[in-house]
């Protein structure tokens, strides 16, 4: 009888452990669905600049990057709206040349405003980095350019095949 009792206790412990682990995973999934992914330490728009820097430098720049992210958020939203308007104008049937040109012009203006804000902040951050840190940022940019070029070359090659 003691073997059966021990087996039941072990089975009960295993079932409770399994239930606890399952509840933990379910809670994590529900939390992720309800709250979205965890926030990164830096905004995506310029976080790449500081990603490979020393923790002390990242800590120094973090408040500035967060403030800039808040400042450009409305412009990014305007750009998304302009992109949607252009997309809708492009898909309109019949095509309205005037509406399409206006949507494209609006997209160009908002993109230009956003890009100017980003370039200004990049200059501001680069001024605060030492030469080695700027070299790391330049290396990252070169790598990104190669990735974009490679991706573009692959998609062009795929499209060219009959």
Automatic annotation (TrEMBL):
<feature type="compositionally biased region" description="Basic residues">
    <location>
        <begin position="140"/>
        <end position="151"/>
    </location>
</feature>
<keyword id="KW-1133">Transmembrane helix</keyword>
<feature type="transmembrane region" description="Helical">
    <location>
        <begin position="12"/>
        <end position="34"/>
    </location>
</feature>
<comment type="similarity">
    <text>Belongs to the ZraP family.</text>
</comment>
<keyword id="KW-0472">Membrane</keyword>
<protein>
    <recommendedName>
        <fullName>Signaling pathway modulator ZraP</fullName>
    </recommendedName>
</protein>
<keyword id="KW-0812">Transmembrane</keyword>
<dbReference type="Pfam" id="PF13801">
    <property type="entry name" value="Metal_resist"/>
</dbReference>
<feature type="region of interest" description="Disordered">
    <location>
        <begin position="140"/>
        <end position="162"/>
    </location>
</feature>
<dbReference type="InterPro" id="IPR025961">
    <property type="entry name" value="Metal_resist"/>
</dbReference>
């Amino acid at each position: 009888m003691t073997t059966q009792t021990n087996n039941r206790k072990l089975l009960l412990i295993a079932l409770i452990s399994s239930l606890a682990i399952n509840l933990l995973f379910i809670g994590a999934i529900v939390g992720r669905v309800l709250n979205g992914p965890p926030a990164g330490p830096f905004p995506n728009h310029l976080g790449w600049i500081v990603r490979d820097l020393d923790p002390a430098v990242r800590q120094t720049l973090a408040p500035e990057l967060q403030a800039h992210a808040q400042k450009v958020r409305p412009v990014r939203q305007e750009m998304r709206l302009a992109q949607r308007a252009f997309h809708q104008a492009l898909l309109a049937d019949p095509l309205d040349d005037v509406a399409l040109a206006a949507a494209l012009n609006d997209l160009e203006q908002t993109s230009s405003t956003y890009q100017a804000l980003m370039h200004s902040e990049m200059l501001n951050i680069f001024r605060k980095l030492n030469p080695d840190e700027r070299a790391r940022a330049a290396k990252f940019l070169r790598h990104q350019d190669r990735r974009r070029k490679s991706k573009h070359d692959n998609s062009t090659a795929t499209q060219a095949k009959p």
